[in-house]
Amino acid sequence: MSTGITPISPVNPIVETYSRLAREYDEDANFLSCWGRASERALSMIRLRDDYKLIVDMGCGTGRAVHALASAAPPRARLIGIDPAENMCSIAAQKAAEQKNVEIRQGAFEKIPLETASVDYLYSILAFHWVTDLAASVAEIARVLKPDAEMDLFFIGRDNGREFIKKTSAIFLKYMGPALLLDSARLRKQITRETAYELFSKAFEPSRLSVEESFTTYYDTLEGHWAWWVRVEGHFVKIPADKKAQCDCDVRAAVQSLAEPRGIPYTIHELHVKLRRPGLLH
Amino acid sequence: MSQEQLQQLVIDWIKANKRTSNHVEIAVDTELLGTGILDSFGFLDLIVHIEGKTGLQVDLAAADPSEFAVVRGLCDLALKSQAAQPCPQA
């Protein structure tokens, strides 16, 4: 079935990984993982105003959030979900088939397929840290937003997953070598709250902008955590195949060694960039 | 740049940018990755700092994983590029 969604290029390994794993994205294991829970928490913080006409979900994935919000959206509001991964878009489009006010488009923060000054409200849940160019992405967001538009961006910060990083970095260094390890780090843009504020305040009026951060520790079993490992698999595609199984084994042992009575902890450092109409920030 | 100067440059940067809040002594033989003092993002920033301050190039393809994450090994890797520079013409 044609979705009318045109693939974007060039191929980004993260986008390719997400697209390949799209069918697994809505499985319970992913939904119940720390990332699923963090996503639901972010979604619960979104409030749609009655006068929003165009609402955009950047990095919509399989459309879980846009699908949920569509039923609660103002009557004349149109929602557009945008994601760079073709297969994610296909699934999201299938879900939205019955919702006349929802449309799915393929695109990315760096090149948003929307007209200038057309969006009333833009939100994004745990996607912005995958951009390839921070400044270009912020400029593109600013381009599509109306002058009085509002925004909520939730994405992971610089100190995300400290427990796992401390335990596993040396293992990845061993199996990937320094060059590949640092190449994988370059794929993500994990910034501090201060850097995020500096970045966004260049494009938006500081009096309308805030950047909040939170550290939330999620406990899970090894298998529970491993279920979301698929989300970062794109980082590791360059591990030689003959080393992958042993690397996985060593990583699992390292993660298991973190176990406490409540489970294995993983702390999500989340940044929340909030843009509000004048006088409505707090 | 001498080995000692480069090591001090690196140690000073790490002290200012380490990701651990607790006090840790940073010495030339301190392992940085497994201890959580730096993560891979920190290494990227550190390499940019070394290259920017010294003009040296850190050739990651030539790096030995067991030495790369130690101050001395990282500095030796950077200094290899200095040794590989052709001698200026007289």
Describe the structure in your own words:
The complex is a heterodimer of chains A (282) and B (90). Chain A is of the alpha/beta class and 282 residues long. Chain A has a domain at 13-158 and 189-219 and 267-275: Rossmann fold (3-Layer(aba) Sandwich), CATH 3.40.50. Helices cover 39% and strands 21% of the residues of chain A. Chain A contains ten helices and seven strands. In chain A, strands 3-2-1-4-5-7-6 form a seven-stranded mixed beta sheet, with helices on both faces. In chain A, strand 4, helix 6 and strand 5 form a beta-alpha-beta unit. Chain A is globular and about 55 Å long. The mean pLDDT of chain A is 89. Chain B has 90 residues and is an all-alpha fold. Chain B has one domain (3-84): Non-ribosomal Peptide Synthetase Peptidyl Carrier Protein, Chain A, CATH 1.10.1200.10. Helices cover 53% and strands 0% of the residues of chain B. The longest helix of chain B has 15 residues, at 3-17. Chain B is globular and about 40 Å long. Classes of the chains: A alpha/beta (282), B mainly alpha (90). The A-B interface holds A 158-159, 162, 165-166, 169-170, 172-174, 177-179, 181-182, 184-186, 188, 190 and B 19, 31, 33-36, 39-41, 43-44, 47, 60-61, 63, 65, 68-69.
